[in-house]
Amino acid sequence: MSTQLERPEVDPPEGPAPTELVVEDITVGDGPAATPDSTVDVHYLGVEYETGEEFDASWNRGQSINFPLRSLVAGWQQGIPGMQVGGRRKLVVPPELAYGPAGGGHRLSGKTLVFVIDLLGVS
């Protein structure tokens, strides 16, 4: 199966950053669903909520990435299970579910993050 995906665009968010995880399906897939124990094969794009600036994207490297879901930030651990292969989902992740409060030592600490994730496979 060769699905040619296009790099997502993220519209600048409006209003204050949410304090809870926001999960929005852009496209619902029709393949197997991810579970909390899954290893996921994804393409993703991440931007800062406040500035809209991109901080990371697998698209820039030209290849998807494979991760055990349990090793990712809490926002992904909570926001990806139930997503089906072939789907595209947007997650708006508050600092507590991303890299922690400001001053936490990570360059994204204290920031609300927006991810657009394409689920390519689960195992």
UniProtKB/TrEMBL annotation:
It comes from the Bacteria. Pfam families: FKBP_C (PF00254). The keyword Glycoprotein does not apply. Its EC number is 5.2.1.8. Keywords: Isomerase, Rotamase. Residues 37-123 form the PPIase FKBP-type domain. It catalyses: [protein]-peptidylproline (omega=180) = [protein]-peptidylproline (omega=0). GO terms for molecular function: peptidyl-prolyl cis-trans isomerase activity. Belongs to the FKBP-type PPIase family. This is Peptidyl-prolyl cis-trans isomerase.
